[in-house]
Amino acid sequence: MRLVIIGAGFAGMYAALSAARLRDIRGASPEEFEIALVSPEPTLVVRPRLYEPNPETLTAPLLDVLDSIDVAYIQGSVEAVDTQSRMVQIATGKGANKSLAYDRLVMATGSRLFRPDIPGLAKHGFSVDSLDDAIALDKHLHGLAKRPATNGRNTIVVVGGGFTGIEAATEMPGRLRKILGEDAKTRIVIVDRNDVIAPDMGADARPVIDEALRKLGVETRLGVGVTSLDESGITLSSGEHIETATVIWAAGMRAAPLTAQIPAERDNFGRLLVDRDLRVPGVPGVFATGDAARAACDDEGNYALMSCQHATRMGAFAGNNAAAELLGVSTKPYHQKAYVTCLDLGEAGALFTRGWERTVEMVGEVAKKTKQEINTIWIYPPKAERAAALASADPERVTDL
């Protein structure tokens, strides 16, 4: 029997770890129960950190970890999923393709930045959505030092006032000064359609964010959209044109396109609706997890967000449950009552909240130290030591904050 996991992000990595853990507990051998993970590269891209400098360093190797737990790695991109015949078609490079049968499938395909059809966005916009995007932005920022010192050169516009947009914008003042010189006058502007920055953060946390933006001199343009981009800058729906050489798009996410091949119901973000065991109803043998799934966290109406915090735990439950069905043991309903946010605010520190009410627990440098620990330790893969790696994937304990 074979379990196939598509994706090597946080959800896919923990699905593989958790499935291997249960296989080990039940005493099944890798020969009788194969676990295969398919992805273009055997690396975890540390996506939550891509707003930082030196993005080329923000990956972690997975091959040794997968080898240590007897998970087969298959290099390639899944181009087609046939849920009737339980087959996936994998493009392995240089025009070669491979068919792989599965008994259970875990869709851990992640998400992509939503890029609307706005004139000039594809040509002139940057992002921190993928490793390649972040590297392209970093290269562009360093290239600014070779340009004449104009207002447009020293201005960065970030479109999107959510977590990604705030972290990208608050990182930019210090990042630009290191490139252009400590005396360079820089201008950072956040544009968002909402009437407030970070509308989901609530009344307790939002003043901390507003104060950080004021401290850093980050401007906002709220309640407006984007009409177009060109070489001279960005034009807003209000008619304002902001001269800039750098527009960073951080407005909205959608589930990866492969989820559309699963004949099931999806939400407005393209995520597959799943039951409490993370199965896709009506599609036998298929589970979805991480950013590919809309999953209830509890019985109070809270649903998992597109975040690594939810993806790691969801991945552990999906891997465990897919393996449990094949091994003939009970599944574990996914639940994630604990929820925290830790928002980087650049040189203004950070913000740490707990609960869906976003109760503020830490701010400033204290929160910054926690954010750095999360970014550099907590979200990285376990060491390639079998017992420790398997122990890290207990679904009941993953990201239990």
Care to describe what's here?
The chain is 28% helix and 26% strand. It is α/β, with parallel strands linked by helices. The model has no long low-confidence stretch (mean pLDDT 96). The protein has a 5-stranded parallel sheet with strand order 5-2-1-9-21. It has a 5-stranded parallel sheet with strand order 11-18-12-13-14. Strands 6-7-8 form a 3-stranded antiparallel sheet, with no helix packed on it. The chain has 2 domains: 2-112 and 253-337, FAD/NAD(P)-binding domain, CATH 3.50.50; 115-249, FAD/NAD(P)-binding domain (3-Layer(bba) Sandwich), CATH 3.50.50.60. It is built from 9 helices and 25 strands. The radius of gyration is 22 Å and the shape is globular. Helix 1 (10-25) runs parallel beside helix 7 (308-327). Belongs to the NADH dehydrogenase family. Keywords: FAD, Flavoprotein, NAD, Oxidoreductase. It comes from Oxalicibacterium solurbis. This is Pyridine nucleotide-disulfide oxidoreductase. One of its GO terms (molecular function) is NADH dehydrogenase activity.
Keywords:
alpha/beta; single chain; 28% helix; five-stranded parallel sheet; FAD/NAD(P)-binding domain; 401 residues; 26% strand
Tally the beta strands: 25
Largest sheet: 5 strands, parallel
Mean pLDDT: 96
Please bin the fraction of helical residues: 25-40%
The number of helical runs is 9
Note the gap between the termini. 35 Å
Helix/strand-derived category reads alpha/beta
The CATH architecture of the largest domain: 3-Layer(bba) Sandwich
Beta-strand content bin: 25-35%
Give the C-level CATH assignment of the largest domain. Alpha Beta
Overall 3D geometry?
globular
CATH superfamily of the largest domain: FAD/NAD(P)-binding domain
Radius of gyration: 22 Å
Number of domains: 2
CATH topology call of the largest domain: FAD/NAD(P)-binding domain
Instruction: Give unreliable regions as ranges.
Output: none
Strand order in the largest sheet: 5-2-1-9-21
Protein name: Pyridine nucleotide-disulfide oxidoreductase
Keywords: FAD, Flavoprotein, NAD, Oxidoreductase
GO molecular function: NADH dehydrogenase activity
Family: Belongs to the NADH dehydrogenase family.
